[in-house]
Amino acid sequence: MDLRSVQFRYTESLAPKDLEQLRALFDGCAFWAAGRKFEDLAKAISYSCPVVTAWDSETLIGFARATSDGVYRATIWDVVIHDEYQGAGLGRKLVETVLGHPHMSNVERTYLMTTNQQQFYEHVGFSANETTTMVLINQPIDGSLLRQVEGVVQ
User: Fold this and answer.
1) Measured torsion, CA atoms of residues 111, 115, 121, 126, in degrees rounded to the nearest 10
2) What is the pTM of this model?
3) Topology of the domain comprising 3-147
4) Residue 50 preceded by cis peptide, ω within 30
5) What is the pLDDT of residues 87-129, one digit of tens each?
6) Which distant-in-sequence residues (6+ apart) come within 8 Å of 78 by Cβ?
C-alpha cells in the first residue's frame, strides 16, 4: 500500500454510496459508532464543520468531523481510520487536517471525547481535562419552559 496516494478532503456532505462506506467503516472499526442510521449520519455531517474524509482511491478509509463556534470552543467527533491503515500516521494527519481548517484553526479551546485512545491524542497535542466533562443523555426539554420564552413558536 502506497500511503502517498491517500487523499484527505474537506466535505459538506457525502453521496449515498459514500455514506454506505462510512457506515461500514464505523461498523467495522469504531465500536462507539456501530449501527448508526444512514439518515442520522447525513444529518450529523450536515451540521458539522469541518468534515474530513480520507480516501485510498475510491475507498473511504478515514473520517473525522467537528463542531465549532469558530472563536471560543470546538469539539472533534467520530475520528476513525480503517484498521488496515492504522499505525502509518494517517490518524494524526486526519486530526491535523480538522484542526487546520479555517473554522477551527483559531479556536481558543478544542475538546474531544475518547474511550481508548488518550495516548494517541496526547501525541497530537491534547491533554486530559477532567474538570469540564458533563453529559445530558437524551432528556426531553419540558415544553412549558419553552412557552415562557417570548417569541417561541409552538
Assistant:
1) 40
2) 0.84
3) Aminopeptidase (3.40.630)
4) yes
5) 999 999 999 999 999 999 999 999 888 777 888 888 888 888 7
6) 26, 30, 33, 44, 63, 64, 65
